[in-house]
Backbone:
């Protein structure tokens, strides 16, 4: 037993002596040096990449205002977002994929422009609509039921889910609903502009008025609220008056709305950026002055706005309500301006006011008061 221990001791001593040879020491030092160099190299590479990314981000940040100024049409595309044709691959010529008892047709508001429209029947007409053609559907606009012309916001088409869901609710409540894709949107030809969108909606409104024997009112959402008040004011200037106007998530004017955009807010601290933004909008002839329009608009107005709207702040809807109310009082009129605020706790945000269970009651009550005037 002791002999084994002695032999193990001699082996350990030999190993220890071997470990301490100059060649092995040099090898270990070389390995440690290589590891440190590798670690230092990794740190240097990480710092270099971080600097490059930071430089790229700074370049992009600085170049955005310059590029938009040099190419002002870019801002127009950002505002209209008409090239984002959600839902992709939707066949707008077959509305039955999205809505029951809905016909698709096109109108030509001016030469070279064709706009797509869906006409959704009130639920009460569905049974009679079985097997009927487009002419019969058009004739139903004269059945005495109210007609809503829905003017949607930017991006997407009339087939976008929150738009379709609103149409379903309004149809169930007994309204004819006509959903328009402005020029450049969906299956409509042409390029969007404020003047063009207004022309398209005005043409549809006048076309419907020729068919209908009941109230015809405009329902604008987001970008569409500017189109709505433009149309209503244009009609008023021609000696007529839109029966009623519903503004869902409206903005005061496009300049103010653009200032509130998250991208714009990143630049607001830069001197001169705000005036540059307004100048570019002016170059694009994009104003959509809801505030100015409501100062003179005589049509009844209902404003719907959610407190938690993360696109257009609720205070803009409140400001428009105050403007319209003051204008109404100046005309010694009553009952023509109403506003409904949806609490933030409901979570409707910008696109989901249609989910409110009292929506049709609110709209129906408003229209009933309009009829009594």
Residues:
């Amino acid at each position: 037993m002791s002999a084994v221990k002695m032999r193990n001791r001699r082996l350990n001593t030999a190993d220890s002596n071997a470990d301490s040879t100059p060649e092995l020491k040099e090898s270990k030092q070389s390995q440690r040096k290589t590891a440190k160099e590798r670690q230092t190299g990794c740190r240097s590479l990480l710092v270099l990449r971080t600097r490059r990314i930071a430089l790229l981000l700074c370049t992009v940040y600085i170049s955005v205002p310059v590029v938009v100024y040099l190419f002002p049409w870019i801002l127009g595309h950002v505002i209209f977002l008409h090239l984002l044709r959600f839902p992709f691959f939707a066949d707008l010529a077959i509305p039955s994929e999205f809505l029951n008892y809905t016909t698709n047709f096109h109108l030509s508001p001016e030469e070279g422009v064709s706009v797509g429209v869906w006409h959704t029947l009130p639920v009460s007409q569905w049974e009679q609509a079985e097997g009927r053609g487009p002419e019969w559907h058009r004739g139903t606009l004269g059945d005495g039921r109210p007609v809503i012309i829905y003017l949607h916001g930017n991006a997407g088409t009339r087939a976008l889910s929150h738009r379709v869901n609103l149409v379903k609710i309004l149809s169930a409540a007994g309204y004819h609903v006509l959903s328009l894709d402005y020029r450049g949107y969906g299956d409509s030809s042409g390029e969007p502009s404020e003047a063009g969108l207004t022309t398209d909606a005005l043409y549809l409104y006048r076309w419907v008025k020729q068919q209908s024997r009941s109230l015809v009112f405009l329902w604008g959402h987001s970008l569409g609220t500017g189109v709505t008040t433009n149309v209503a004011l244009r009609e008023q200037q021609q000696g007529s008056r839109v029966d009623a106007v519903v503004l869902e998530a409206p903005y005061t004017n496009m300049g103010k709305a653009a200032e509130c955009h998250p991208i714009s807010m990143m630049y607001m601290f830069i001197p001169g950026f705000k005036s540059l933004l307004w100048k570019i909008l002016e170059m694009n002839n994009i104003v959509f002055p809801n505030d100015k329009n409501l100062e003179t608009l005589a049509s009844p107005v209902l404003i719907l706005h959610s407190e938690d709207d993360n696109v257009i702040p609720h205070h803009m809807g409140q400001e428009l309500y105050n403007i319209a109310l003051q204008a109404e009082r100046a005309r010694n009129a009553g009952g023509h301006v109403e506003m409904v605020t949806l609490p933030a706790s409901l979570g409707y945000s910008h696109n989901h006011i249609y989910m409110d269970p009292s929506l049709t009651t609110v709209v129906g009550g408003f229209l009933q008061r309009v009829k009594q005037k």
Notes: The chain is about 50% helix and 15% strand.
